[in-house]
Amino acid sequence: MQAFFDVKQRTARAVRLLFLTTLISAAPAVIYAQEDSQREPERITEPNLSVAEAPRQNLSGLEWLERLAQINRTSNFEVSFVLTRAGQEMTPYLWRHAVLEDGLEAEQLNLQNGPGQEMIRLGNVVSVFEPDVQPYSIYASAISGPLPSDLLYNPTALTDAYQFITIGRTRVSGRAAQQLRIVSRDNKRYNYQAWLDEETGMLLKLDMVDLQGSLLEQIQVTAVNVSEQPSPYFSRINPQALPGAVAMTPKPRQHQWEVKFLPVGMEEIKRETRRLAMTGQVVEYKLFSDGMVDVSVYVQPAQDSLDSDVVLRHSTNTFLSLTNGQVQITIIGKVPPQTAYEIAHSIGAAGE
Question: pTM value?
Answer without folding.
Answer: 0.81
